[in-house]
Amino acid sequence: MWWIITICGVIAAGFVWFRFYPTFGGRISREERLAFIANGARYSGGKFINLIPTSAGVSPSNLLAVTKEYLKDSKHRRPATTLSIDPVDPVEFTSGDQTRIIWFGHSTFLLFIEGQTILVDPMLGRTPSPFPAFGGKRYSGRPPLEAEQLPSLDAVLITHDHYDHLDYGTIKRIKDKVGRFFVPQGIRAHLIRWGVRADNIEELGWWDATTFGGLTLACTPARHFSGRRGFDQNATLWCSWVVKGRNTSVFCSGDSGYGPHFKEIGEQYGPFDVALVECGQYNASWEAIHMMPEQTVQAHLDVQARLLIPIHWGAFTLALHAWTDPIERIVTAARQMGVEIATPRIGQTVVLGDPEETSLVWWR
Q1: How many CB atoms lie within 10 A of CB 18?
Q2: Consecutive H or E run containing 217
C-alpha cells in the first residue's frame, strides 16, 4: 500500500509543480481559444498550425544519426573563452535621428527607430532554461546591458514563447519600464501571470498590423512551433515582425524554417532597410523549423532587404554544429549571392546608413 501512496504523492506534487511554477507561464482560457477561431487564426484542437506541413522534431528514422552526431567531439560547440562585449551607452544609443541596432547575442536586440526604443525577444538571462541553475551558459557570461541598465522601452516585441526568446526573469525585471508589449496570439497569458498589466499588452495574429509611435508593427508568419511545458506544443502562436516607419523599415524573422512566407512578406511590406534573420541552431533533422545559413540568405532576398544581420547564434549552444559554423557559412553564402551583410560584435551599435556598418571577422 505504501508504494501506491508514494506514487500518488509524486504525481500530485508533479501536477502542483507544473501548475504553479511561474516560469512555465500562463494558461490560455477557453474564451481566448474561441476568440482565436473566431478571428480566423490557423488554429484547431487547441493548437496553431503552420502555413505548410512542418515537423518540429527528430523522427525515429533519423534519431540514431542525431545521437551519433551528439556523441562526437563537442569541444567546438562553445567558444574556448568567454566572449567579450562592446560597452554600451544607453543615452548615446537613443539620441540622434539615425536608426540603430544593438545585438545582444542570439536573437535579442535593441532597436532605436524614428524616436522609438524597442527591445525584441527579451532574453537577458544566463541560460535558456526553465531552471536557471541548469543548461548551457551564455557565451559572453552576461548581456551587453542588464535589465536595470536598459533605457526606457517604448515597446517590446516577442516572436514566440521558447525560453531562448522569452525569459521569465527578464520580463519581471523590465515590465515596469515598458510602454507596451506586442505579442503573437496566446502569449498574453504568460505576461499577465508574470505581472504585466493586461491593458499594456496587444496580441496579434498573422498579418495583423497596428500603429504605435508613428510606426507600423505587423505580425507576420514564421514556420516554427511553440511551448514551454513540454506538453503544450503549439498552444501559442509564433511569428516574425515588421517594423515600418516613415523612412526606415526593419524585418525580424524570429525562429523559422524556410518557406514561401518570406516572399509573401516581401511582396506586402518590402523592401526593408535591414533584415535580422535567424542562421543558427540548425540540423538536417529539424531543417523545417530552423533554416540552414544558405536558406537564411535566400530568405533575406525574398523579403527584399538591403542589409542582412544574422541572429540566433553567438550566445547559446542549442544544436550540434560548431558555434562558428553558422556565421562562417552565412558570410560565404552572402558573398556568393551578392548580399550585403553586417556581423556586429555583441554590444556593438550598428548605425544604418553608416559606411562602417559592417564589422570585422571578430569570432575567429
Answers
A1: 13
A2: strand 215-220
